[in-house]
Amino acid sequence: MTYTELAERLAVNIARCLDALLENDPGDIDISSGWIRALHQQIAGDLFPEWAGRFRTVEVQVGTHFPPAPHTVALHVENFCRDLAERIKHVESAESIAKLLAWADWRFQWIHPFKDFNGRVGRILLVALCYKLNLPPVSPAVDEAGRTKYFAALRQADRGDFAALEELWIERLGA
Questions:
Q1: Exposed, middle or buried by CB within 10 Å (0-12, 13-18, 19+), for 79?
Q2: Which pLDDT tens digit goes with each residue over 96-148?
Q3: Residue 69 backbone zone (phi > 0: left; psi -120 to 50: alpha; other: beta)
Q4: Radius of gyration in angstroms for the set of CA atoms belonging to the chain, rounded to a whole number
Q5: Can you give the CATH number for the domain in which 117 is found?
Q6: Hey, how many other C-beta atoms are within 10 angstroms of the C-beta on 1?
Q7: Containing domain of residue 130, as a range?
Q8: Please, which contacts does 165-168 make with residues 24 or more away whose CB atoms are closer than 8 Å?
Q9: Whole-model pTM over 0.70
Q10: Cα 5 from Cα 67, distance rounded (Å)
Q11: What residues does 62 pair with on adjacent strands?
Q12: Total number of domains in the chain
């Protein structure tokens, strides 16, 4: 299968996931480890049944970033979900929403829980989070021109500086 064919099949699966997500009441969305794995399974399960929906079991490198060891991924995802649930309780303003979305965006990609398609899962997770927060539709995807800026913002967040990523979210939110 060519990359174009793969991308088209994934796009269809992603559209189904987004449709199913929007059929829920925002308050009923429970971003959990199981929900994240199920999302990955729905996106890639028909293409890669042997590993879709399962946390990675191999070391990976993403650009200059080395995500956590495979045996720690499940714990990192569980902690991410718990931390996210607590952070949602303290959202008060547009600035705090941008901070939350920047943190969630970075942390999920930092963990890099799956062998592949983490960006796609992360973008759906962010759409779900925006929907859960009753925000207007926001696209977390970046165009080709914005990719360099986005990846630089993620690497900056790796060093504890979220300013650039927060600014990207403020722009996306139109705040």
A1: middle
A2: 999 999 999 999 999 999 999 999 999 999 999 999 999 988 888 888 888 89
A3: beta
A4: 16
A5: 1.10.3290.10
A6: 9
A7: 3-173
A8: 165/102, 165/105, 165/106, 166/98, 166/99, 166/102, 168/102
A9: yes
A10: 28
A11: 65
A12: 1
